[in-house]
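U., I forgot to send this yesterday:
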Amino acid sequence: MQFLLSFQVYLKNKKLFRYSKSTSSGNFKSHMDTKHPDLVQDNTPASKSNKELSSYFASFVKPTCSSRKKRKLSDEDVAVDAYLMIARDNLPLQTVGNEGLNTFLCKYTTLEQSESSGGFKTVLPSRRTVTRAGEKVYSELKSLLKSLLKEDRHLGAAATFDIWTDRYAKSAYCGITYHFIDDDFYLKRVLLDASKFGDRHTAENIGVYVEGIMTEYGCDSKIKMYVTDAASNNKKWGNDQEKPRMNCDAHSLHHLITTDSVKKVKDLHEVVKKAKKIVYALTWRKKDLEEVGILATVAEVTEEMELDEQFGTGDLTLVFDSPQSVSFATTLKQECPTRWTSLWSLLTSVLKNMDSIKVVLDKMDRFDLMLSKTEIAMLKEYLRFLDDFKRSTMEMQGDNYVTLSTAVLVREELYLAIQDKEGDSAILKQVKKLMRGKWDTRLPSLLIHYITSILDPSLKDLRSLEDYLKKVRIPNS
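Result:
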């Protein structure tokens, strides 16, 4: 959610000394420019680093045919532009050596052509040249980013970091992101580093890594809060180094749903595992699923046409020339172990495609994977229960808006969701009981949650805020 936090107009000797605009201020600025041009005076200096950072991409972001023809490009210029294209579109480096792309460019570009190692005409530099250009681009952009962050005048910032392990390659990587609000009160984020983490994941090694990155970019003194997962090494690092640190609520919800509840309810866990086995067994059966879906829809439409012809209802709205023109929800979703929402997507996709899945499993003689009516009903009830958690998770993991102020509201709503209700099955009651037992551990009430909620006018009538303020006395600091 983007919103206007402030609209500043500074008056000095009847002059507009500074005008800082944000979204939706265009009408006011146009009025001042047209009706009162003598009063407008903008003395806000543009950031030199920001100009340089923007100009670095200028030739890449807005290329035109005329400018390309008039501008003489060196091999280095072409290599840099090619690398920026690859980085922006997330393409493999080998793209520059692809015959199809080079044949297309040779036909429509005025750049000098040469013979490639593959025996075809090319206008792009080799992969090795582009790789060297990438090293130059990285070095220059890193220097510009350092100067930009060191000159930045924002009062405070936050940082998030996490260590991820590639189990296949047996390698660990650590990424750290810097979050701040700019002069126009927009939330910004910058990835400072994402590199291989070869040391043991101890609190000491984490501290060396984080301190090194923050010192390099001159950001350490500006950090007001570090947000991490609840791993013991992260907690120890925060305590030992006396760093302000808090758990990521979205990550805590993941453990509350998976580790603390579903894995401990035997019957539900077995059904979930069965659904995962179904997806795994049908990984290479997409064509069969599509064919079954098409046949089922053709039969359904044929039946509707017969009823329409017999009774003249005239309600038939689905018309197609061929089965290929109809789309079906035949995609079975895979699970990501670190994202509980992917489990929700997996179970939802299985239930939506259950009719097709039954036909394909029957053809495969995999009757052991057939879900019974009781198991289907169990999954449907569980997914309905998780709807509130999914909505809250998606809101809390937003990148372009502040979410800390909503923590108290989300906690209050979800706590109501885990209370027993009339009609709940014994399985769901067991899930809710386990969640309530771990609630305060996973989602503790912190002072910073309530302070940020108090500063949010939309939450002024939240009952839990009033109750909390009666119990504690907020320090002046």
